[in-house]
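4.2 Preliminary Data

To establish feasibility before requesting continued support, the project team ran the inverse folding procedure on a target of 197 residues. The structure was first converted into the token representation described in Section 3, and no sequence information of any kind was made available to the design step. The complete token record follows.
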């Protein structure tokens, strides 16, 4: 099990790498286009602002590289949001490998933004390799203020004011709005499933 973690300049990279260590996975952290293109699997992590993350990817010459990948790719939190066409956060053009736009999350009345904490994830489409061995309704850890606004490619949903995509998948691209690296047993299982995909 080997994986390349994209050096996006965002936070949470250390926690992703620590989770891979716990799984005994061989990993590499890089922003070099040729290393990413040659990797067996790729994780695109992210915490922060979409505009900053996309600017970092453009400076490193990674936009076209990431768009053209054919190996399994997992976007985590902001990394998942970057897989879509655009984000309302800074009116940012994103990678466009998934159809849809990222918009501001609308919390329930009296609830804070960002949405932070454990939330139940409900399966909407069966057969996704990421969810092998993970029961429907399992809890995962979320920290986010934006959500994908898409009805396509949605594998599982969570609810915070309204339903929003929690897991997406299309071809070789996967995304989780939650942080599997901070989601205990079920998060570790999801990462293991990705490494085996």
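Position-by-position output of the design step:
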């Amino acid at each position: 099990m080997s994986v390349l973690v994209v050096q996006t300049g965002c936070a949470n990279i250390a926690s992703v790498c620590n989770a891979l260590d716990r799984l005994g996975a061989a990993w590499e952290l890089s922003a070099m286009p040729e290393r990413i293109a040659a990797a067996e699997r790729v994780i695109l992590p992210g915490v922060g602002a979409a505009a900053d993350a996309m600017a970092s990817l453009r400076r490193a010459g990674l936009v076209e590289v990431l768009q053209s990948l054919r190996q399994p790719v997992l976007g985590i939190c902001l990394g998942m949001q970057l897989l879509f066409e655009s984000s309302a956060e800074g009116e940012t053009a994103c990678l466009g490998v998934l159809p849809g736009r990222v918009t501001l999350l609308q919390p329930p009345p009296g609830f804070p933004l960002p949405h932070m904490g454990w939330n139940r994830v409900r399966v909407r489409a069966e057969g996704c390799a990421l969810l092998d061995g993970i029961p429907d309704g399992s809890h995962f850890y979320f920290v986010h203020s934006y959500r994908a606004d898409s009805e396509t490619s949605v594998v599982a949903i969570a609810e915070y004011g309204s339903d929003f995509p929690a897991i997406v998948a299309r071809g070789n691209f996967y995304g989780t709005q939650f942080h599997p690296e901070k989601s205990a047993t079920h998060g570790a299982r999801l990462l293991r499933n990705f490494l085996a995909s």
